[in-house]
Amino acid sequence: MYNVTPHHTARWRALLHDCVKAFADARGPREVSVIASPEGALLPHWRDANLLLSQTCGFPYRMLGLERDAQLVATPIFEAPGCEGPRYRSVIVVSNAAWRNGATTLEACRGLRAAANSIDSHSGMNALRHAVAPLAQSRPFFSSVTWTGSHAATLRALAAQDADVGAIDCVTLALLRDAGFEPLRHVREIGMTVDAPGLPLIAAKSLDDSDLEALRDALDTAHATSPARARELRLRGFARLTPGAYAEIETLALAAGEQGYPELR
Questions:
Q1: What is the location of CATH 3.40.190.10 in the chain?
Q2: Residues 104-141: tens digit of each pLDDT
Q3: Which end is more exposed in the chain, N or C (fewer Cβ atoms within 10 Å of the end residue's Cβ)?
Q4: Cα–Cα distance between 131 and 13 in angstroms, integer?
């Protein structure tokens, strides 16, 4: 989920290879392939009975039934503004033009054009919906909502003045800033959402308990293999949360609904 540039993709792929090696050293050789990114819809990929390791968002894990179809392996711990241990926030950003026109708080964004990566994203949709709900008073808050497909695309839309406001995963934002992502020059940060458990690493339900523990240990080994790579990925390690920790995602969604704001609008 954090393949924000080709360089980051290569570093994540190297970490996965080290993880697979450590796992094989502990549990014996396995036929494992590492893919750069899954093709097509993500839910079938996450529900694959042969899935050894992947990363999803907390929203589909908790809200779209993935918790029943896959098991939680670990939650990454990142070093980025907005992160505390295995928890993260979304950064609310506006275009420079919106900022100049007075959009310096979320409340001042009423009637502006929102952009979000996807309707099943906690960081781009659910966290922003929760933040807007008490301001919306059961009515539409934005003049429009555009689904962009990625946080980077949301930032490009803001920079091009095709949208005015959005919420960006704070880890994604930090990695893009490290990479010198040009659209960031054209946006301003105006706040953060509440925090929530970070994006979970998952495996197929078919993985037995001993393999699951070996996989967790292999992740720790892979992380320690290259401190330089870990710094580039802003990765501090992995936490072992329980599936119940992700109930917070649902709590935030329900809170918005109870305030008459069941969808981002």
A1: 87-196+250-258
A2: 999 999 999 999 999 999 999 999 999 999 999 999 99
A3: C
A4: 34
The CATH number of 87-196+250-258 is 3.40.190.10
Task: Tokens for 81, please give them.
Answer: 């503004």
Spatial separation of the C-alpha atoms in residues 111 and 92, rounded to whole Å = 16
Q: Would you say the C-alpha torsion 229, 235, 239, 241 has a positive or negative sign?
A: negative
Give the model's pLDDT for residue 35: 79
Half-sphere exposure of 85 (CA within 13 A, CB side): 7
pLDDT in tens, 83-93: 999 999 999 99
pLDDT for the residue 34: 83
| Residue corresponding to tokens 């649902």 | 250
Task: Beginning with the edge strand found earlier in the chain, give each strand of the sheet holding 144-147 in spatial order.
Answer: 144-147, 113-116, 165-169, 90-95, 187-192
Contacts of 245 (CB under 8 A, 6+ apart): 75, 197
Mean pLDDT of 37-48: 86
Amino acid at position 53, single letter = L
Across 19-86, where does the E strand assignment appear?
A: 54-55, 70-78
Architecture, CATH, for domain 6-79+198-244: 3-Layer(aba) Sandwich (3.40)
Q: 144 - beta bridge partners?
A: 113
Rounded to an integer, what distance in angstroms lies between the CA atom of residue 124 and that of residue 101?
Answer: 23
Residues 6+ apart with CB under 8 A from 31: none
